[in-house]
Amino acid sequence: MLYGALEAGGTKMVCAIGDEHGHIAERAVFPTRTPSVTIPQMIDFYKSYEIEAIGIACFGPIDLIPGSATYGYITSTPKLEWRNTDIVGPFADALGVPVGFDTDVNGSLLGEVTWGCARGLQDVVYITIGTGVGGGVMSGGRLVHGMLHPELGHMLIPRKAGDDHPGICPYHGDCLEGLVSGPSIERRYGIKAAELAERPEVWELEAYYISEALVNLILTLSPQKIILGGGVMHQEQLFALIRTDVTRMLGDYIQAGPLNDMESFIVPPSLNDDQGIMGAVKLAMEAHI
Amino acid sequence: MLYGALEAGGTKMVCAIGDEHGHIAERAVFPTRTPSVTIPQMIDFYKSYEIEAIGIACFGPIDLIPGSATYGYITSTPKLEWRNTDIVGPFADALGVPVGFDTDVNGSLLGEVTWGCARGLQDVVYITIGTGVGGGVMSGGRLVHGMLHPELGHMLIPRKAGDDHPGICPYHGDCLEGLVSGPSIERRYGIKAAELAERPEVWELEAYYISEALVNLILTLSPQKIILGGGVMHQEQLFALIRTDVTRMLGDYIQAGPLNDMESFIVPPSLNDDQGIMGAVKLAMEAHI
Q1: Model pTM?
Q2: How far is A12 from chain B (nearest CA, A)?
Q3: Is-contact B258 B225, C-beta < 8 A?
Q4: B219 in A contact zone (CB under 8 Å)
Q5: How do the residues of chain A divide into helix, strand and coil, expressed in percent and rounded to 5?
Q6: Is A15 helix (H, G, I), strand (E, B) or coil?
Q7: Do A216 and B148 touch (CB under 8 A)?
Q8: What's the confidence (pLDDT) of residue B140?
Q9: Has the ipTM of the complex gone over 0.85?
Q10: Residue B114 in 3-state DSSP?
Q11: DSSP string, A194-257
């Protein structure tokens, strides 16, 4: 069985053909231009293969509400050419196969739960920290959607004593994303995050705020594993700092199995940056059933 | 069909007999003394009826991990006589029926979802604010347990500018519970919360912190409804303040159906303080299946 997989990002579109084991057989990358240019390019790619279904893990915000008039649309994205764009419909029409559809971060989560470091787990959180902060939640083996997909990047967290950086979220100022995204780091220090690798105080503060958010997620969702991806998390020194901070902030209140093994509780993605496209394969498989 | 239901609290034990419609036919209340005194009293009550199963909605912390050696126990409660006490086993042994078991707040949540204001909903949060702060989460129609039941009462939230009350949580100081529980209000003002009803600033600050926690839960769980119970929420002026604060704090970032009707999104319990015992009936029904 072959499945189409699309990891739709604001900069590039990763198109692939995979099988039911998550093996990626073919792959093509297109820059994200306008829908009228880029969607036909992608459809041409998939038409060369006999696929049973296609899965789309998509940048957002997107409409995931079953029965909504704009289900399958990219909605209020700041990327103007793609605002209010039906992304599911054109593939369904042109390829004549079922289309699985979810957020990009849920795609990555699904890839890790199906074939990666969270295989077999039921309660998992995946957070990407990069240009923005996005989150995906699996609870009881099911991706959480609720009335909208989780926007946990905008969680409200306490400020560290003495830090008065206003944060850069246009909606909330110093919410999580406003404090820890790559652009927030750059605004705070006047230097790109990637060039601050040798300044420990940068990453200590970054770890502090990320850890507060993780504590809240642990207290709310009781995950078995938390996966942290995205460009900011390429600063790998963050993992040790975060594990220490989370342990300290929980303050012995919770003693449960996963917390006793922080090295395997708070982890980077395990699929060599293929977690998103592999998750899109899984979305296709689920649409096919 | 008759079911046994127990709402086990640190002060009193509410025992009842209910049917599959949640109708409570008989009820007895026993003060919570020691396990060796109170458990036999309760067993005697249930023995008078032909029940198919019993459901226990229990104060905690409790062990809900299937297969755990101490499943069905009350664990590290500050109520010393009940620490490390098997509460499920004695009822199972004496009554010879299946026993459903969950937290007290999950019981209340289940009552409201089955027979109350959240009937038919799949994604619901129930929070009690009283001596402590407890929370129950239903996601996708399933009570969230994860590696432990949610302890969202200890969520970390930003401090309001100018407020430097240290909070009273022995673990975290100014976490949610440390800031908004009844004892925290009393510590802050030196007067019992119930006697502060006419001081608007008390309830404005209280609403502010509760709202921050609700914003984080909305961003993480996307609930369709949030139910706020417990002694502190008997100050009904809090509801209007909280609805206003949550709307402002979300800052137009999320526009989804339930948020456009705050009056039915953030609500008090609807079952006249029977939500817990009715939820225990439902726990019994689920154990019986």
Answers
A1: 0.91
A2: 25
A3: yes
A4: yes
A5: 40, 20, 40
A6: strand
A7: no
A8: 86
A9: yes
A10: helix
A11: GGGTT-HHHHHHHHHHHHHHHHHHHHHH--SEEEEESGGGGSTHHHHHHHHHHHHHHTTS---G
